[in-house]
């Protein structure tokens, strides 16, 4: 999985006053869990642009001013309800021998025969939660749609991989090919016309 480096400064004080001062200075208060103890730090809000405002999944290297660095994943993020600015971010420290759970984006490959026949592909699950060792975390989950006809569904069992465990029930739908609205309306109109013609013939 691709990694993004965030440069930050360790926080000595974590009270409300210092937190407010950080935010006023355009910085985001953060904490890393999963180690011996929680580590508090802050970083410029713009440093999180490529991590937060993207459909992709990344691991993070948190590089602090004292030379220490930590491998982590984003665990939770809080936004301001009005301005949408980032208020706080929680990270979880990665260990090579410890599995983690993270949401991975789904990417479709192939061409569905049902789409060529006039159907519409609907991606029900844009991301799937998986559990794996850090080294086995994929950049994305590949969903092969080349066998989907109109009305067919692709379940998570079809995108399983031995490198990670998908944390969803087997009947979870990843994507499906549905009848388009235009085709459905045309079928309904044709049925109405056929019914009207039948009624007129019966007269």
UniProtKB/TrEMBL annotation:
UniProtKB keywords: Ribonucleoprotein, Ribosomal protein, RNA-binding, rRNA-binding
InterPro entries found in the cross-reference section: Rbsml_bL25/Gln-tRNA_synth_N (IPR020056), Ribosomal_bL25/Gln-tRNA_synth (IPR011035), Ribosomal_bL25_b-dom (IPR020057), Ribosomal_bL25_C (IPR037121), Ribosomal_bL25_long (IPR001021), Ribosomal_L25_dom (IPR029751), Ribosomal_uL5_bac-type (IPR020930)
Record-level GO BP terms: translation
SUPFAM superfamilies according to UniProt: Ribosomal protein L25-like
Pfam families tied to this protein: Ribosomal_L25p, Ribosomal_TL5_C
GO cellular component terms, A-Z: cytosolic large ribosomal subunit
Ranges of residues in domain Large ribosomal subunit protein bL25 beta: 99-179
Keyword Glycoprotein tagged: no
HAMAP family (alphabetical): Ribosomal_bL25_CTC
Family (UniProt): Belongs to the bacterial ribosomal protein bL25 family. CTC subfamily.
Name of this protein: Large ribosomal subunit protein bL25
Name of the coding gene: rplY
């Amino acid at each position: 999985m691709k990694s993004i480096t965030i440069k930050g400064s360790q926080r000595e004080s974590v009270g409300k006053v210092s937190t407010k001062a950080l935010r006023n200075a355009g910085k985001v208060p953060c904490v890393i869990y999963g180690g011996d103890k929680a580590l508090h730090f802050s970083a410029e809000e713009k440093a999180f642009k490529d991590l937060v405002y993207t459909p992709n999944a990344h691991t993070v290297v948190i590089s602090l001013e004292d030379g220490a660095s930590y491998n982590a994943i984003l665990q939770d993020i809080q936004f301001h309800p009005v301005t949408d600015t980032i208020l706080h971010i929680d990270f979880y420290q990665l260990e090579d021998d410890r599995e983690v759970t993270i949401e991975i984006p789904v990417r479709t490959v192939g061409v569905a025969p049902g789409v060529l026949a006039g159907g519409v592909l609907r991606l029900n699950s844009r991301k799937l939660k998986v559990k794996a060792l850090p080294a086995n975390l994929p950049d994305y989950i590949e969903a092969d749609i080349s066998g989907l006809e109109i009305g067919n569904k692709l379940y998570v069992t079809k995108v399983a991989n031995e490198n990670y465990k998908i944390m969803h029930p087997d009947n979870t739908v990843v994507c499906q090919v549905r009848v388009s609205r235009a085709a459905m309306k045309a079928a309904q109109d044709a049925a109405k016309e056929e019914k009207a013609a039948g009624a007129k013939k019966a007269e």
